[in-house]
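We treat protein structure as text, and this decision shapes the records that our systems exchange. The remainder of this section carries one protein's record, kept here as part of the documentation:
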Amino acid sequence: MLTKPASSTTITLWNGREIPRLGMGCWAIGGPFFAGDTPLGWGDVDDDESVEAIHRAIELGISFFDTASNYGAGHSEEVLGRAIGNRDDIIIATKFGFATDPETKQATGAFADEAFIRRSVETSLRRLKRDRLDLLQFHLNDFPLEQSDAVFDTLEALRAEGKIDAFGWSTDFPDRAARHTSRQGYVSIQHTMNVFEPVPEMISVIEGKGLMSINRGPLAMGLLTGKFTADKAVGAKDVRGAALDWMVYFKDGRIAPEFAARLDAVRDLLTSGGRTLTQGALAWLWARSPRTLPIPGFRTVAQVVENAGALEKGPLPADVMAGIDAALDRV
């Protein structure tokens, strides 16, 4: 699998299918959900616009969509089900581990026992209107290594039963990424990766084990779109305004000053070759490794069109990549 060189904008999946090396992340289209008063979504959404954006992405050749059972307390999966349904030419990846109440839009805990996993799978199948889940990912980032064995035993069983085609882990820890590579059907790691976080140890595991690198946060939660200035704040229902330990790119809903400086240092390099800043950030990921599949988020048709436009320009050239490294070293 994944035999395409770094110069390519296509990738071969675990099932032998070749697709464009760009997916769409569906966290934002789930709409608001919360942990108490803390927002976990990206603000209000228009479902009709979301469906139109999904359809436009497919028209532009995109065939990989990533969601999770808790995004919008299940609403993201429902929107994807409405837009795509059981089409076998589109790959949908989802995740399990975080429970939510669809009525109150509240997070209710994190679980990984077999009964919960099986209920989550059935719920995701219903919401997505699928006969089988293409890719199911464990969503608990720092789950204990030894306890994860039982989780992936369950995933192997679900695969044998035909409920899922493949599985992986959404984790930023290389030791967790490497734990289950001997299991048939374990094909991917979803992890944070972008210009500001190149994660060499994770990429080393992924390349060494022949896995797929699904890149969440490829645009640093919107920072690498260039649309935020120091005085522009996110909305009240936006997770980027929450005081969360892992929210490093934004502080109090505004760009963190240290990341604003890094962005200024690489802006011109990322926009080389006629690329927008967004397209340059995606092109950086393609040049970083032949196994990367970025999944930028979207809420509008315009965002989808800009993201997909990066495919026409391809990965960044080696001299630009070297220039970016040097520029960031100076910041």
